[in-house]
C-alpha cells in the first residue's frame, strides 16, 4: 500500500538546482527514452505487428525502416492480453528477432495468470526492468492493463494510472509504448478519435496513428514482396523493406499526430505481407505525404454504406445500357440492396426511367442519362397507316386560331321565318293599295303597268298542322313581258 504523504513531505526546489538533460532516443526523433508514447488505430491494421517489428529490430540492432541510425541491441518487455506467448515468439521469429532479448510476463501459478494492472503492479514492472535492462516496454492494449477501479473515460482516473508509468519510464530510461483502439466516431481530428479519455494522449509525449491508405482494399497481400524475402538486397539509402516500393493493395500509413519533442515526424508507408512460416511480416515502402488528420478525414465506412454501395452497383449494372427494373431488384437483393435504397441511389445518379409495352405487358426500364431505350421495329401495316395519316394532315392541316377568327367575320345567311297566328293577332288588316292611273301607252290599248318593286307581295294561307293555319308571305310575281305591238313600258 502506498505511503500517505503530508504537507511536511513536500518541498519547493529552484529550477537552477535541477540538472538539465538532453533527450535520449530509442529511435532517433521517433521514440524517446524516459517518456510515454501511444499508438492509435483500428483493429487489423498491424499495430501489434509494428511493435513486434520494433522489438525485433531493437534486439538485433537494426535501423528504423526509414534509415534512421541503428541502435545498439537492447532487450524489450512485451505485455499483451491478446496473443499467447508461443504465437508472439513465432511472429518475432518471422520478423528476424533475437528471442533471447525479448521477455513476456507470466505467473508461477497458471490459475492466477492474467494481465498486469496499473498502477497496482508498477512495482513488478520496475523490478523486471531493472533485472532485464529492457529499453522498450509495449503494453498491448493499454485498456486491458488498468486497475479495475480506473474508468477509461475518466480523465482523472487515466492520469492517476499513467503518471506512475511515466515516472517509471523516466527513472529506468526506457520507452513505454501504449497501444489503443479508436472509437466509433468519424470526422473529428485524429487526436480525439482514440478510445477512452483524452487523458491518454495528453499524458503521452508522443502519439502516432495507424490508418489505411485511401483506396487500399486488402489487408494482406497473397505473396510477400521480394524485398521482404531478401532484406539484404536493399537499395542504397533505403530500408531493406523499401527496396520494392511498387503500389500494392492493402497499404497502411504510420503518421505522427502529436510530438512534444519537436516537429511531427514524416509519415511512413507499410504493408502486411505473408511469410514462409505462415505468420505475417511487414514490408516498409518509404515515406508518405499523408498526415494523421488526412487519414481520418476520409472515413472508410462511408464507401460501404448501403446508399453508397447502391450507387456503385447501379453504375456497373447500367453501364451496358437500359435494364428492366425487375432485373435490377433481383440483382440488388444478391448484394443486400433493397428497392428503397436503389431508388434513392437512382435519384442521386439522375437515372432515367421509361415505360414500354413488350408482348402486351407494361415494362419499366432504367437507364443512365446518356442512354436511350431502343425502339422495336414497326409492322409494315402500321407504317403504311401512319404515312396515310401524315399525308392527310398535310393536305388538310388543322385550323389555327386565325382561321377561326376569319370565319367569324363572314355573316351566316338568315333562314326564312314562318309566321304564325300570334304574329297577326293584334295587327289590323292591311288596306288595299289605292289604284293609280298609269300613263297611256302609245300604239295600243291602255295596260296597267308597275315596276317590280311596287308590286304588292301576295299572301297565301297554308296549314301548319292539325287545327292551325298561318299566313305565309310569298315573293311578288314578275311582271308579264310586253306583247308585240304594245309599245314600251315607261316608268312613272
- The total number of structural domains is 2
What structural category arises from helix and sheet content?
Answer: alpha/beta
Query: Helical residue percent?
Result: 25-40%
Q: Work out the helix count.
A: 13
Element order: H for helix, E for strand: EEEHEHEHEHEHEHEEEHHEHHEEHHHEE
What is the CATH C-level name of the largest domain?
Alpha Beta
CATH homology group of the largest domain:
P-loop containing nucleotide triphosphate hydrolases
Measure the end-to-end span. Answer: 158 Å
**CATH fold label of the largest domain:** Rossmann fold
CATH architecture of the largest domain: 3-Layer(aba) Sandwich
Tell me the β content: 15-25%
Number of distinct beta strands: 16
Would you summarize the structure shown here?
The protein has helices at 47-60, 85-94, 122-132, 155-172, 199-203, 226-229, 292-296, 306-317, 325-334, 339-349, 380-395, 401-409, 421-424, and strands at 25-27, 31-32, 36-41, 76-80, 102-103, 136-140, 175-181, 206-212, 251-259, 267-274, 280-288, 323-324, 352-358, 361-367, 459-465, 468-473. The protein is of the alpha/beta class.
Amino acid at each position: 500500500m502506498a505511503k500517505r504523504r503530508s504537507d511536511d513531505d513536500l518541498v519547493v526546489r529552484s529550477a537552477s538546482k535541477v540538472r538539465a538533460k538532453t533527450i535520449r532516443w530509442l529511435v532517433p526523433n521517433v521514440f524517446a527514452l524516459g517518456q510515454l508514447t501511444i499508438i492509435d488505430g483500428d483493429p487489423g491494421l498491424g499495430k501489434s505487428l509494428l511493435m513486434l517489428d520494433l522489438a525485433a529490430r531493437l534486439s538485433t540492432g537494426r535501423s528504423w525502416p526509414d534509415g534512421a541510425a541503428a541502435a545498439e541491441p537492447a532487450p524489450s518487455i512485451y505485455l499483451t492480453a491478446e496473443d499467447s506467448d508461443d504465437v508472439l515468439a513465432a511472429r518475432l521469429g518471422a520478423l528476424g528477432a533475437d528471442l533471447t532479448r525479448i521477455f513476456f510476463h507470466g505467473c508461477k501459478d497458471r490459475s492466477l495468470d492474467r494481465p498486469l494492472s496499473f498502477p497496482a503492479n508498477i512495482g513488478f514492472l520496475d523490478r523486471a526492468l531493472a533485472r532485464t535492462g529492457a529499453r522498450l516496454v509495449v503494453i498491448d492494449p493499454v485498456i486491458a492493463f488498468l486497475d479495475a477501479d480506473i474508468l477509461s473515460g475518466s480523465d482523472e482516473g487515466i492520469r492517476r494510472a499513467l503518471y506512475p508509468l511515466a515516472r517509471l519510464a523516466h527513472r529506468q530510461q526506457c520507452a513505454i509504448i501504449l497501444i489503443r483502439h479508436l472509437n466509433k466516431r468519424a470526422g473529428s481530428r485524429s487526436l480525439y478519435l482514440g478510445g477512452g479519455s483524452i487523458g491518454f494522449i495528453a499524458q503521452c509525449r508522443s502519439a502516432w496513428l495507424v490508418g489505411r491508405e485511401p483506396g487500399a482494399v486488402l489487408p494482406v497481400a497473397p505473396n510477400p514482396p521480394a524485398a521482404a524475402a531478401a532484406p539484404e538486397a536493399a537499395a542504397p539509402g533505403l530500408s531493406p523493406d523499401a527496396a520494392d516500393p511498387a503500389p500494392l493493395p492493402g497499404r497502411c500509413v504510420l503518421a505522427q499526430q502529436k510530438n512534444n519533442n519537436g516537429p511531427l515526424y514524416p509519415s511512413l508507408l507499410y504493408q502486411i505481407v505473408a511469410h514462409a512460416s505462415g505468420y505475417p511480416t511487414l514490408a516498409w515502402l518509404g515515406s508518405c505525404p499523408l498526415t494523421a488528420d488526412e487519414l481520418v478525414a476520409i472515413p472508410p465506412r462511408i464507401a460501404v454504406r448501403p446508399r453508397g454501395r447502391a450507387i456503385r452497383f447501379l453504375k456497373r449494372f447500367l453501364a451496358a445500357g437500359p435494364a428492366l427494373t425487375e432485373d435490377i431488384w433481383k440483382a440488388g437483393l444478391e448484394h443486400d440492396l433493397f428497392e428503397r435504397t436503389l431508388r434513392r441511389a437512382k435519384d442521386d445518379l439522375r437515372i432515367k426511367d421509361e415505360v414500354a409495352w413488350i408482348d402486351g405487358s407494361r415494362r419499366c426500364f432504367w437507364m443512365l442519362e446518356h442512354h436511350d431505350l431502343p425502339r422495336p421495329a414497326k409492322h409494315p401495316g402500321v407504317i403504311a397507316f401512319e404515312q396515310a395519316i401524315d399525308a392527310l394532315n398535310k393536305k388538310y392541316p388543322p385550323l389555327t386560331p386565325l382561321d377561326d377568327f376569319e370565319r367569324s367575320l363572314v355573316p351566316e345567311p338568315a333562314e326564312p321565318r314562318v309566321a304564325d297566328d300570334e304574329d297577326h293577332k293584334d295587327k289590323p288588316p292591311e288596306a288595299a293599295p289605292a289604284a293609280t292611273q298609269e300613263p297611256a301607252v302609245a300604239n295600243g290599248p291602255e295596260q296597267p303597268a308597275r315596276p317590280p318593286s311596287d308590286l304588292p307581295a301576295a299572301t297565301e294561307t297554308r296549314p301548319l298542322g292539325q287545327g292551325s293555319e298561318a299566313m305565309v308571305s310569298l315573293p311578288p310575281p314578275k311582271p308579264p313581258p310586253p306583247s308585240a305591238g304594245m309599245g314600251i313600258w315607261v316608268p312613272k
